[in-house]
Predict the structure.
Amino acid sequence: MKVFFHIGYPRTGTTFLQANIFPFHSQINYLGPKHHFYGDQPEVKVYLKNDLLKKITNSFKFKNIYELKTSEIVQEMQKIIDINQFDQKKINLISTEKYLTYGFKSYKEIYLIKKYLSAKIENLDFQIFYLIRNQYDIIFSQFHHGNFLLKKQLGIDEFEKLIFSLDNIAETKKEVCEFFELYDYYKIYNELKEIFGEKNIKILEYENFKEDPQDFFSRLSKILNIKNSEINNLLNKHKLNALNQNQNQLIIENSITIFLGNLFKKLNLNKIIPKFLKRKIKIFLSTKILITKYDQNKLRAIVKSYYKNSNTNFKNQTGVKFLTT
């Protein structure tokens, strides 16, 4: 049996893959779940929902899972996971960006699922893959996309302040340091490698996804060992869930637009209200931020310098192409 775990990163096209490719490919048994669904984002019915993952977390909450015997893990996990939901012939695909999201980063649930399936299934092929993105771009996108939440978590309400904190990282508070550590790809790769083994980790790049989608999906199909021709048939005109940008300003969601989006979904209004009208309402109520107030080149240089050594090591070890060093 083959099981693939797609773990992120957020802001690397995960929603596009989860909404348009994974659930509909005939060779994939898509188990879910999406970490967050906001407003009019498409939601796919899946077996492995977030509340089920929470049960796993709660069942092992006060235990050092890496010291547990396999029998102890199996005893708890068989109460939670229905192994019959996994397909012997298809690629079993779990996809959630939760595990590489600030505030949620953890490999415990992945490890427990792997240990349980390994004990119950002979010749299990369990692999992890994820997408990375140039650090400045992903931090810029993540900070503004999740602005209303991140500024509370980090205690920083301005993007420039966040980036300038890298100049004096030794005196920066713990929450901000942990946020930047999340994008130290070399560190993350080594953590995953130690737990799951180097041969079981695959890395794709968002820039490849954006600039040469044909090559990207060819690479993805080879990793999953599925028909690329079918992926090409599934690709449609939906754009990536990109940060809305209008010349000199950003248009970003806030608590109001997310509340309305979720309300529309709850009341089944998405099918009634025309898309152009929903978009106008969303733009009108969204937060607008002027890009011109940022010295992008200066901020980008700070981020590039901070991750330079790590990126060099990461590129040498993995062969990724698009990271700046």
About this structure: The two ends are 39 Å apart (CA to CA). The chain has one domain: 2-318. The longest strand covers residues 125-132.
